[in-house]
Amino acid sequence: MDQSHQSPPAAAQAADIGFARYCAALWRHRRSLLACVALCTLLGVAYTQLAAPRYQAVATVQIEYQRGIVRLDESDNGRPLPPPEAITEMQLLTSRRVVGEVVDAEGLDLSVTPRRLPLLGDWLARRHERTSDAVAPPRFGLARFGWGGEQLAIASLNVPAALYGQPLILTAEAPDRFLLSDAQGKRLLEGRLGQPASAGELQLDIAQLHAYPGTEFILVKQRRGVAIQALQERLMVSERGKRSGILSIKLQGTDAQQAQRILRGITEAYVRQDVTRNADESTQQLAFLSQELPRVNQRLSAGRQALDGYQRQRGSIAIGAEGRSLLRQAVELDGQLSALEMERLGLALRFTTTHPLYQTLLARRQVLNRERQVLQRRLGQLPQTQQEVLRLQREVEAADKVYALISKRIQELSVVRAGTVSDVRIIDSAYTQIAPVYPKKPLLILSALLFGCLAGAAWVYLRASLERGIEDAEGLENLGLPVLAQLPLAPGRQLGGPLQTPLDSGYQEALRILRTSLAFARTEARNDLLLITSASPAAGKSSVAVQLARVLAEGGTRVLLVDADLRRGRLHRRLQLARRPGLAEVLAGLATPEQAIQPTAIPGLDCLVGGIRPPNPAELLMSARCTELLRGLQQDYELIILDTPPVLAVTDAVLLAAQAGTCLLVSRHGCNTAKEIEATQRQFAHSGLALQGAVLNAVPPPPFTRAALGVLTG
Hints:
Blueprint: H1 10-15, H2 19-28, H3 30-50, E1 55-63, H4 86-93, H5 96-106, E2 110-114, H6 121-131, E3 151-158, E4 167-174, E5 177-182, E6 187-192, E7 197-199, E8 202-210, E9 216-221, H7 224-234, E10 236-239, E11 246-253, H8 256-314, H9 321-348, H10 356-379, H11 384-418, E12 424-432, H12 441-466, H13 473-477, E13 483-488, H14 492-495, H15 505-521, E14 529-534, H16 541-554, E15 559-563, H17 571-574, H18 583-587, H19 593-596, E16 598-599, E17 605-608, H20 617-622, H21 624-633, E18 639-643, H22 652-657, E19 662-668, H23 674-686, E20 693-699, H24 706-713
Parallel strand pairs: 13-20, 14-18, 14-19, 15-17, 15-18, 19-20
Antiparallel strand pairs: 1-11, 1-12, 2-9, 3-8, 4-5, 4-9, 5-6, 7-8, 10-11, 16-17
Helix pairs in contact: 2-12, 3-12, 5-7, 5-8, 8-11, 9-10, 9-11, 15-16
Subcellular location: Cell inner membrane
InterPro entries: AAA_dom, Bact_polysacc_biosynth/exp, GNVR, LPS_length_determ_N, P-loop_NTPase, Wzc-like_C
Catalytic activity: L-tyrosyl-[protein] + ATP = O-phospho-L-tyrosyl-[protein] + ADP + H(+)
């Protein structure tokens, strides 16, 4: 045979997951897919109900970027300072100094939580607290758990270094007594309400305790630095708009009131720190200017003495209009340069040389120096005596101008320091949103639904990609098994229901094809025994045996259906017959065939059920009584169908195959692999037997066909 025309192996075909095959796999595993979606959705709904709600507190502050930096150059008055980056204020707002004040005020280094019942405890406690202010009584006899309404206020708790971060268990033993132990149950401390108790470095003072005796609370004392870092990580600070100076501060927590108090405390602490910082800046500038004022005064006095001495020595010297104009310009430039230099020294106390404000000052000084050089060249063209007089007068007037300006600024800074205000303005005080921000129930349920769809689809794809089962008749025929029929996938309510349940027209027609094929296959059979088996469980062999027997009986053939699976036979349930007596009792000599054979709802179809499960089923099937029974039954029936166990599970099918005239193998679409079929054939070959044919069962309709649409709508 030309190998180029042979079909590829079934395993290779199964590895190619096309769209049509994937759709068929989705339909085949639709129940598992829907179960996965339903499970994920239910878990999502349960999570939204059981998850602790988180509330969000929000506050808004505005930063006024006029930081009390006093310019000595009057020409810059009215020009706003360039605002710093918002990240600077964010870092100050979340600094340890600001956050630490709130941690100390709210006692955030200590967490107190009642012990709750796992999974449902928090939900039950929240339900109780919404309806009543009283303490919920213990349920189910579990007094150690808190069921809602418990209150524990600790005035102070000091623990040794070894117990930081370790859970401590506080048990309410009586209305005014308590017991403190560690996580292992070791007693650490006993005391009374309102009375400080101590044991070495461990000190505890409880101000309030409302709980039933036996209720346990879990206390965890953290180091101050750890508590500050935990609160810093919870804070969310962002700027509204680019360089707007408006900061939005958010904090989430399970206790709405506590989150609001914490955020309010942070904004107020930030304002206080800003006032202190502004006062310190004014103080530093005032100290700097106070140190510079005597130096400028000395320069002024020395300049005046030098000018008076030169005039006494040279006499009166006439200065023209050009000289006076140059003098005014020079005095103005010198005053500006002197003021810039002192301002530079003041900025050097607060900023680095790379700060934008410092760089701007240096750029202005370079411009003024260039103007001064041009003016100096013009002054160099005057007579020598006029140059000296102008130089001396310029020094005196420049020093006098700077002295007056510093004096004025000192007075202004004194007023500013006395009435220092914050550059931070609280626009919206901290408030808590009414609705919790988490969990968002509609979003979570929808996400769970989508996740279930994706997970189910991925599982189906993975299962389809890993399946190497035979999916067409060619796969069986390539293994040397003629396919007598392909039975379509039928609803379970038809195959598993009562025997009179109407069958789908397509399935019924496939059974008729199988009946016709069997008629030709049995022309050379040595007897009227038809054995139906499978390679592995769940192939549907029992359903094929029952429905085939039904079609044959309806066609006028007198049929006996024998449940030869003495281990797990269930034909009595499917046919709604009595379990005993059955085949096991007949082979054991406890009943006669006439007593065990039962009629069914279909005329011409009788059934011999399996009976009570015997301890030695293989020995009973190998006995001479079994051979005599099957030979005797053939005289009363035109066809006897033996429903046997799977071949690869037990040897019962091979034992009975030695007496059957026709052996039929049922293979389920996409489930039984080529290796399983080959192993079954080897089992028969080792006993000198052979399979006369195969049935491909549960073949799904191709996607997007009328048959598929009919199954979907039916």
